[in-house]
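hi! just following up on the protien thing from before. the input was this:
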Amino acid sequence: MRKDMSFSGKVKQELLKQLPAARHCQIAELAALFDLNGRIRRRDDGGEYLEIRTENLTVARKSYMLLVSVFHNPVDVRVRNHNIHGEVREYYIDVTGQQAIISILKALKLMNEQGVVTGDCLGQQHRLIQNACCKRAFLRGAFLSAGSLSDPEKAYHLEFAVLSEGFASFIKEILAFFELEAKIVKRKRYFVVYIKEGSQIVDFLNVVEAHVALMDFENIRIVKEVRNSVNRQVNCETANIGKTVAAAAKQIEDIRYIECNMGLRKLAKGLRETAELRLEYPDASLQELGEMLQPPIGKSGVNHRLRKLGNIADELREQN
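and the predicted 3d structure came back as:
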């Protein structure tokens, strides 16, 4: 696996290696892949063939694996370069032979028993994925074809981008079966089913059985939450320190004003002792000041005296 591969690519690589043991689950996953990438094509001689066309090598490989595993039919693979430099490739997975085509279309619920291709494939495929294991497999195929997952270091965002509003609603319905709350939004010509909650994305990775990606995602999420918690605590403490320093500076300013304009000796004994301690220990907390007094008093008592000193200073300023 390449080190520069995106997190979404790593998830798809993990899903590629999973081949369900049960035939019905393999068919369910293949159904999602074919719904999003497949079609029935007609050759120049009038014959028909099934084609899965994709630019995603992972989708092409998984489609090939499932077709061979489930139907044991010969499968042709073609690769075509999109541009002169060969940077963009399209992969074609073709199935020929009338009996092979019929058996595949019937298994995917795209053809009825009378041999008629049904237009309402999603309505038929509800019967295909009644079991929870088949729903998991269908979501795997849908994610391989149309899904993406943001790097959790940057953001929490999982989405499926499909061309059909009906298919988007179908995916949302399957996600809801696993208590995953997704939303749908129209983006240009696509209908996007998305989840933005970190814990829900973790649950999704568990549903499609991408357990390695799940652990990586959780580790990143835990580190981010701890980092954010520490940052909030530091910011809060910094703000509190700033408030304490500003309050102490104002208290000293008031006491100095009283000292210059009235003299501290004219203050009541408790106020004078508190004023003198504040001048002597400008960085001390209210609790520390209270413990230095004889007899000691609590924070609220010290705060009350300092407020009284502030009021006296304000009265002197008004008089002057």
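Residues 211-261 form the longest helix (51 residues).
Residues 286 and 300 are 8 Å apart (CA to CA).
cheers
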